[in-house]
Give the backbone structure.
Amino acid sequence: MNEHGLSQRLAQVGAEVPEGARLADIGSDHAYLPVALMLAGKIDYAVAGEVVKGPFASACKQVAKNGLAEKVVVRLADGLDAVVAEDAIDTVTIAGMGGTLITSILEKGRQGQRLRGDERLILQPNVGERNVRRWLQDNHYQIVAEHILEENDKIYEIIVGMPQPPQQPLSYSEKELFFGPFLGVEKNPIFIKKWQREQKNRLRVLDQLQQAENPPREKIAAMRQQLAWIEEVLP
Ligand code: SAM
């Protein structure tokens, strides 16, 4: 992969970035996404935030190599601390991390007022998608789009949130948080493949839990509930 040819996963994240956006890409190893979007003329300005020095240096190199230092600003910072008010960011991408890390970055950003609450959020958790949806719901974001794709034998979900006026509270069901309000309705072949895999994994875990010396009742009940939901969505 390079700045011209994004992976299918990052290309799908980029496809959700609006034309003319002022983007903050948090966890921007190599700055591939902001550089590709800038080279394509899709965005006006970007901050590429990285907390680890090695990937930060790679991102700086990538930006310099493409002569974009004035338009793609690389900052070494934890999460949304990379962003300042003058950046006037309107779109945030956070991709390629666990859902718990993504929500902790968003929560810290909200508490530290780096996130205003009116940005478009494009999130690609590698695991823990349910946590991400729950955070969006709890913070008055409506899920406006979801994508699922397979690349190199891995299945990825992309979740897009847009701010919702607090006077219109959102309430997704537990099942919608689990499968995704769009993905669970669309049920495309990759979604089916993902949940067939998850069913196998959960059956194995359930078996292990049941064989424990002191079987954890609550965990077993939760696992059974999830397996019942999975059975319902599978053909
Ligand atoms: N976003 C790119 C992608 O999707 O291909 C890179 C994903 S890479 C697996 C995750 C990156 O996030 C790493 O470079 C890591 O250093 C960075 N990261 C992890 N926690 C972070 C944080 N709190 N703030 C900024 N960057 C973070």
Notes: The mean pLDDT is 95. The longest helix spans residues 189-211. The longest strand covers residues 141-151. The chain has two domains: 8-170, 190-233.
